[in-house]
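Raw record, unedited: DUF4870 domain-containing protein
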Amino acid sequence: MEKTSEKNTAAFTHLSTLSQYFIPFGNYIFPIIIWSSYKDKSEFASHHGKQALNFQLSLLLYTLILALIAIPIFIGILFQNIPLEAIINDEDFIIRNLNLEGNIGLLSVGITAVVLFGLLKIVEFFLVIYASIKASNGEYYKYPLTIPFIK
């Protein structure tokens, strides 16, 4: 049976990943600090610290893959249409010669990658909350689709 302090530490490790919305790289820094402080003291806190870090590293990898798909597509489509003529009237901004007809397939792939990224961030938020609830209840939790970087 885990002590209340171990449960709180494990739950706080998961919740500390949400600091990414306020502090750049907080989703890596704070879990590493908490995990490295408690990994030798508590197997339960160590398990949850590893899970939180592995999940964040997996999300980073998935985000980089989506970015490597979407960014070149959008840049390539933009540069194919570089001779854009923009007209600025009093209140109107008109772009002429923007042709997306031949690029609908690529554009769809790029937009799909961006939508998947958005869904990934939403799913991340809810999984972090769920994992922290499981940890606070004293249960072991393993994030889905997580690559075990730290064993």
